[in-house]
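Sample entry was shown:
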Amino acid sequence: MIRVHIFKGVLLIILLASITAPDSMAKPVMGDGFPTGQETPEGVASDFARAFIQQDDALYRRLCIPSLGAAKVRSEYLKFFDGTSQALRLAKKDNKPSPNRSQ
């Protein structure tokens, strides 16, 4: 009987602590309602989507990791990275429409 009361007491303490505890996993949110920042996978994914939607090569470059490979792998990564960044820059310059792009 005492075990049941102890269990209920511990359960009540855990419940109250979880209700009153601040949300330590709160994600920073942009004006569009989606998360931002590199603290969470969701924030990074949303920022990548923003870079492509807004055709923002500067944001794209800030989000990508530096090339860490050697020789062939490094050159292939840099070719892809620079090509994607250039495509974003050209698309914005040509003013090609992109869904939800802020004009």
